[in-house]
Amino acid sequence: MKGKMKVQNFYEPMVMKLEEHDIPQIADNEVLVKVKAVGICGSDISYYYGHSPLDTPDGKGPMYLGHEASGVVAEVGSIPKKLGLFNEGDRVALNPVQQCNACPACMRGEFNTCSHVETIGVSVNGCFAEYVKVKYTHVYKIPDEVSFEDAALAEPLACATHAVQRLDVQLGQTVVVYGTGGIGLMQVQLAKAAGAGKVIVVARKDYGLGKALECGATHVINNTDTDSKYYAADVAARVAEINNGEKAPRAIVATSNMDALQDALKVTGACSTIVYFGLPGPDDLLQVPVLEAIQSERTLKFAWLAPLVWDNVFAVIASGQVNLSPIITNRFSLEDAEKGIVFMKEAKEPKVKGVILFD
């Protein structure tokens, strides 16, 4: 497909320019997608502000950011066309983490640990552009019931789903969720859908806790603001009070805050499982009382990316088990993408998730 397109081209920290570039030309194993919606991820914000390097050879731009996206198939490469997998006009979402499918990790289905991965918007041009090219193995049709806006959040929802699957929630169990960002609010709903009886959310701000209640949390705890009606000085004691005098059997940490990562060990008890999802700094260390952990048979797990969950993702959106409308709080145009990134980082007003819409 020939022609020009608008892009937001990221060059270096705090420098992003709206430009006109050629529409990318696809290879035989690729699909060209006209982007309809793309989420602003925390990693996009980190790249823009220079807190994290890109996964390019030198860690720098120029490159189009954006990896949480949905759109419409505009052109189909010869391989997926021969297989009859896609047609122009198909509504799709993208899995940006394009593993090699040939290394030992991929052979085991551990796609999230592939060492030859190519990631849209991180190592190759992404979705802050009117068109993006994607390997056909990473383009998924979306149900009619799923909007482009919701489908743009399929990738973070896939990551949240993988983490909750690793939590191994049993029917009726109490789950403690730390964090009320987009992922945390998704995990509240996924824990309920998995059979949790009570979902207790712990966070520092009442706005996020209100969102958690809107997303189905049964109880919320503010662990910071003493003026909050949800405040508890001793989070572990409050969790036990809610859970009939017992510590929680399950906890999931959807924040990078080290106090939260550490606190999860205090609110959970014998034979409990904790899943750590939020990304702390490279030098942060978790302190585990090993003897107590052994004698109480604790299970500590860690979740990274989203292997083998994408069919579940679209199903939980279409069924209504996960409602993304409380999570999407801000919308921007492609022209205002840079302003949107700055807003999501710096604006004082309450917010959760920003999405760039193309129509």
TrEMBL record:
Coiled coil: none
Protein's name according to its UniProt entry: GroES-like protein
Pfam families, per the entry: ADH_N, ADH_zinc_N
Keywords: Metal-binding, Oxidoreductase, Zinc
Superkingdom assignment: Bacteria
InterPro entries: ADH-like_C, ADH-like_N, ER, GroES-like_sf, NAD(P)-bd_dom_sf, Zn_alcohol_dh
Organism: Christensenella minuta
GO molecular function, one term: metal ion binding
Domain named Enoyl reductase (ER): residues: 15-356
